[in-house]
Amino acid sequence: MDKKANILIIEDDPVITEFLRTGLSYEGYQVSVTNTGKEGQEMIRQDIFDLMILDIMLPDLDGFDICRRVRSFGSDIPILMLTVKKDVSDRIKGLDSGADDYLTKPFSFDELLARIRALLRRSGHISESKILQSGDIKLNIETLEVHLAGKLIDLTHTEFSLLELFMRHPHRVFTRETLLNRVLGYDYDGGTNIIDVHISHLRKKIRDSKASLIRTVHSVGYSFYPVEI
């Protein structure tokens, strides 16, 4: 993948802001954050960003106004709008205001990443391989399929998300809390032991009975050690 993009987040909810900042930083993106529309506008004027994530409901200006103003001074930055509003009319209003895509809350981090990658591809910023491979395991990001020794294996959405995250970031240690937020979302209020259950199922499906691929880091979380091809 090419150099990671510089992303501006304009969001006033501290929980969502931290969720986005942590997750995108893990992915290697450069992340800047503000919780007001006016400051966000000034940051767009002064700095070069590759993408903007914009909340509609802000304490000073709403996202629609910010979109129109950013477009009025000639910026063609890709804009992904976030909102709790699910009405089609609001979505149309956002797109008509200059947004490139629209995501309703709550959302999964995987979907957010997919939207970001799509917007960056359209803007010509990145090109990326659609296949991740470790030994006999091949994961296709585009078709959402995983093959083991040439045979298709059946993974749940959560298992696929975990495996993709691990394969994208070999040797990185992920805490259970980080994995929980990444694959189940910032609004999930269950216990972190659910991650252990999903990891156990994933290990069985990829024939990692000795935990040599997905390794447990005692009292912390998990890390992935790929097989060299």
Question: What is this structure's SSE topology?
Answer:
Elements lengths: L5 E5 L3 H13 L3 E5 L2 H10 L4 E5 L7 H10 L6 E5 L4 H10 L3 E4 L4 H14 L8 E4 L2 E4 L4 E4 L2 E3 L3 H12 L4 E3 H9 L8 H13 L8 E4 L3 E4 L5
Parallel strand pairs: 1-2, 1-3, 3-4, 4-5
Antiparallel strand pairs: 6-7, 7-8, 8-9, 10-12, 11-12
Helix pairs in contact: 2-3, 6-8
Description:
With 229 residues, the protein is of the alpha/beta class. The protein has two domains: 6-122, 3-Layer(aba) Sandwich (Rossmann fold), CATH 3.40.50.2300; 131-224, Orthogonal Bundle (Arc Repressor Mutant, subunit A), CATH 1.10.10. The chain has eight helices and twelve strands. A five-stranded parallel beta sheet has the order 2-1-3-4-5, sandwiched between helices. Strands 6-7-8-9 form a four-stranded antiparallel beta sheet, with helices on one face. Helix 3 (63-72) links the parallel strand 3 and strand 4 (79-83). Helix 2 (37-46) runs parallel beside helix 3 (63-72) and helix 6 (157-168) packs across helix 8. The longest helix is centred in the middle third of the chain and has 14 residues, at 109-122. The chain is elongated and about 55 Å long. The two termini are 19 Å apart. 30% of the residues are buried. The model has no long low-confidence stretch (mean pLDDT 89).
Short summary of the structure?
The protein is α/β, with parallel strands linked by helices and about 230 residues long.
Q: State the major sheet.
A: 5 strands, parallel
User: Total number of helical segments?
Assistant: 8
Question: What is the CATH topology assignment of the largest domain?
Answer: Rossmann fold
CATH superfamily of the largest domain: Response regulator
Overall pLDDT level: 89
β-strand percent reads: 15-25%
Question: Low-confidence segments, ≥5 residues, pLDDT <50?
Answer: none
Oligomer: single chain
Which percent range fits the helix content? 25-40%
What is the ordering of alpha helices and beta strands? Answer: EHEHEHEHEHEEEEHEHHEE
Q: Give the strand order of the largest sheet, numbering strands 1, 2, ... along the chain.
A: 2-1-3-4-5
- Tally of individual domains: 2
Give the number of DSSP strands.
12
CATH class category name of the largest domain: Alpha Beta
Q: Identify the CATH architecture of the largest domain.
A: 3-Layer(aba) Sandwich
The backbone outline, from C-alpha atoms, is elongated
Gyration radius, in Å: 19 Å
